[in-house]
Amino acid sequence: MTLNHTMVFLTITIASLAINSYKVMAEVTTTTTTTTTITTTSGSNGTNNTVTNTAITLGNPILIKSGKTTTLKSVVVNSSKLLEISYVGNGTVKGSDFIDKGVDLIATKPDGGIYSQGRGNIMVKGSSERASYVFQAIGQYSHDGKLRESGAAFFSTNSTGKMVAVNNLVIIYKGETSRGGNIKTIGWEWK
Length: 191
What we know:
- The structure is a single chain.
- The chain has one helix at about 20-25, and strands at about 5-15, 35-40, 50-55, 65-75, 80-95, 95-110, 115-125, 130-140, 145-155, 170-175, 180-190.
- By secondary structure, it is mainly β.
- The strands form two sheets. It has an eight-stranded antiparallel barrel.
């Protein structure tokens, strides 16, 4: 009797991102694709193959923003010492220009990595339309002193205008913060 064998092949293609400047980030047209194939073979007198292909394509970035930290302070939350960062910035999401304002809490893990979570608001330039978001990320400080993170942000709004495009939007992103407090973020819609 032949034993059932399951082979799972996971292929992940992630293009590297050069985040040297806001202008460079605006020109990035990277496509990220993940494909999973599962093949099952069984039976003693025959072969039964089941193949499932799932392709996730993130496509071009839909969020590009830059900003600057405005305040840094140490805070204690549930007996843990955290760094609280307030920031402001601007950018583009789904073709709409916005002004950004938010707060980020950063915890340093025992291995030197960081865990970050926060919230923010974006407002369409020249309008009163708003959307809010919450985010979580993990990352680490590199040898050049920059904090590099990967995370997810979750948007919501009551807007019926331009900002309706971000209601219930989930973005996965890469972010970079320099020693001087300059922030660069690029993100893709997760569908």
